[in-house]
């Protein structure tokens, strides 16, 4: 697993789309309320793309990890695979997470996305305004479903962008039979960005 505080070599992180050179340096930053807080998360730190360019993380670099306290994958499970596209047209930047919910009995709901020119001031995803545009727009995404979360912003100047994603993951591990029929044994956990 990649240490979330480290800056990782750009060749491992992004694939430029189109004739863009050089590939930007993307890094990661752990955000938490304190070193002992259970309220933690990761944000991707992104060098601003040149005009009319698009950068994409490589598949498998970033995952959504549910119950992975302080970025420890051993504490939870992979809830989704994702990529992040950052595009620029003039002074308008668009960030799009493409998320594929893991197989089995995992679902995703309550999606929140952060995209800005500084790291989030709060690790409370409900405070990340405005809300992302989701497609398709359904309340919950089933196992194997793919959806996108997109935000756009206009920036006068600056050379760094930040993006983060959060959702509620439900994983049903088995079913048991009761008088009323089959009932799932499900656990609900928060899924946050983690480094594969």
TrEMBL record:
Native source organism of the sequence: Edaphochlamys debaryana
Domain of life per record: Eukaryota
Protein name from the UniProt record: Uncharacterized protein
């Amino acid at each position: 697993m990649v240490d979330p505080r480290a800056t990782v070599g750009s060749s491992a992180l992004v694939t430029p789309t189109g004739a863009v050179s050089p590939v930007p340096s993307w890094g990661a930053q752990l955000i938490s309320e304190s070193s002992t807080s259970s309220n933690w998360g990761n944000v991707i730190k992104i060098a601003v793309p040149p005009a009319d360019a698009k950068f994409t993380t490589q598949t498998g670099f970033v995952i959504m990890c549910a119950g992975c306290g302080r970025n420890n994958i051993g504490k939870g499970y992979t809830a989704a695979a994702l990529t992040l596209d950052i595009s620029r047209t003039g002074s308008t930047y668009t960030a799009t997470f493409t998320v594929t919910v893991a197989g089995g009995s995992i679902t995703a709901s309550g999606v929140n996305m952060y995209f800005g020119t500084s790291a989030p001031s709060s690790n409370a995803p409900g405070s990340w305004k405005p809300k992302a545009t989701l497609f398709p727009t359904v309340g919950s995404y089933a196992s194997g479903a793919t959806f996108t979360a997109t935000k756009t912003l206009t920036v006068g100047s600056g050379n760094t962008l930040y993006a983060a994603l959060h959702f509620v993951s439900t994983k049903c591990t088995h079913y048991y039979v009761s008088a009323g029929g089959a009932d799932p044994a499900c656990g609900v956990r928060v899924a946050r960005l983690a480094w594969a």
